[in-house]
Amino acid sequence: MELYSPYMTDIKNFIEKTMMFVNEHSKTFEDERAILLKDANLLQKEKNNQSYSKDKHKNNKFNDEY
Q: How many Å apart are CA 41 and CA 29, to the nearest integer?
């Protein structure tokens, strides 16, 4: 079953890029490591972005009657 959410398409692209680097690696893997680390951080950001929501009335939430 194909899923077309932005997170799932990014996961698929990350896996394909990782497999490409595994098959065609260079002697020093620092560039590949930097690219994969950046992509992994962007994936984590996309995943966390879906779970957080802003409190609409943040100031009205706490009322201690003082």
A: 18
Rounded Cα gap, residues 6 and 49, in angstroms: 11
CA distance 36 to 18: 7
Give the residue, 48 or 35, on which the prediction is more confident: 35
- 31-41 pLDDT, tens digit per residue, is 999 999 999 99
Looking at residue 5, its pLDDT comes to 83
Q: Tell me if 55 sits within 8 A of 23, measured CB to CB.
A: no
Provide CB contacts within 8 A for 18, sequence distance 6+. Answer: 36
For residue 24, give the 3-state DSSP assignment: coil
- CA triplet 29, 34, 39: central angle to 5 degrees? 125
